[in-house]
């Protein structure tokens, strides 16, 4: 068993694609038109182009339960998912220069250093550096 695709709910797929590629540095992997304006839209890490794909899923636009869940997590400040990085401080500085807003600045917590940012698509995302 392997992880191939991980979904993240987004309110606007194009806005999410712009943020995840333009700010975070992911690369578009698949962009397949579905019904209406929906797309099978995935991005991957530049460092792992054959690694797990992040599906920018428009589920909050079609399922009230998904919208309520996403809003509840966001309002509580709970990250929807996390991305590992080699240096949280360096990523925080790079993303801040690009205008990304952080709700938690780089903070050591035991064996990790974390920071949390707003992906502008309805989610908080946690960066994690293993110490």
Describe what this molecule looks like in 3D.
This protein starts with a strand and ends with a strand. The longest helix has 13 residues, at 64-76. It is globular, with a radius of gyration of 15 Å. With 131 residues, it is an alpha/beta fold. Helix content is 25%, strand content 37%. It has three helices and eight strands, in the order E-H-E-E-E-H-E-H-E-E-E. A four-stranded mixed sheet has the order 1-4-3-2. A four-stranded mixed sheet has the order 5-8-7-6.
Mean pLDDT: 97
What spatial order of strands do you see in the largest sheet? 1-4-3-2
Which runs of at least 5 residues are low in confidence (pLDDT < 50)?
Answer: none
Strand content: 35-45%
Shape: globular
- Helix proportion: 25-40%
Q: Structural class given helices, strands, pairing?
A: alpha/beta
Number of strands: 8
Order of helices and strands: EHEEEHEHEEE
**Main beta-sheet annotation:** 4 strands, mixed
Number of continuous helical runs = 3
Span of the ends, CA to CA:
28 Å
Instruction: Work out the radius of gyration.
Output: 15 Å
Helices, strands, pairings?
Blueprint lengths: L4 E5 L3 H10 L4 E7 L5 E6 L8 E5 L6 H13 L4 E4 L3 H10 L4 E8 L2 E7 L5 E7 L1
Short description:
This protein has 131 residues and is an alpha/beta fold. The protein has helices at residues 13-22, 64-76, 88-97; strands spanning 5-9, 27-33, 39-44, 53-57, 81-84, 102-109, 112-118, 124-130. Helix content is 25%, strand content 37%.
């Amino acid at each position: 068993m392997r992880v191939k695709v991980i979904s993240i709910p987004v309110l606007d797929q194009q806005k999410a694609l712009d943020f995840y590629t333009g700010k975070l540095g992911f690369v578009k992997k698949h962009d397949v038109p579905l019904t209406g304006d929906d797309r099978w839209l995935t991005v991957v890490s530049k460092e792992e182009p054959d690694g797990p794909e992040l599906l920018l899923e428009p589920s909050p636009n079609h399922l009230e339960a998904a919208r309520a869940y996403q809003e509840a997590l966001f309002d509580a400040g709970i990250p929807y998912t996390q991305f590992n990085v080699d240096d949280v401080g360096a990523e925080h500085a790079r993303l801040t220069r690009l205008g990304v807003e952080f709700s938690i600045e780089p903070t050591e917590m035991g064996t990790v250093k974390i920071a949390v940012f707003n992906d502008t698509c309805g989610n908080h995302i946690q960066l994690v550096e293993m110490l």
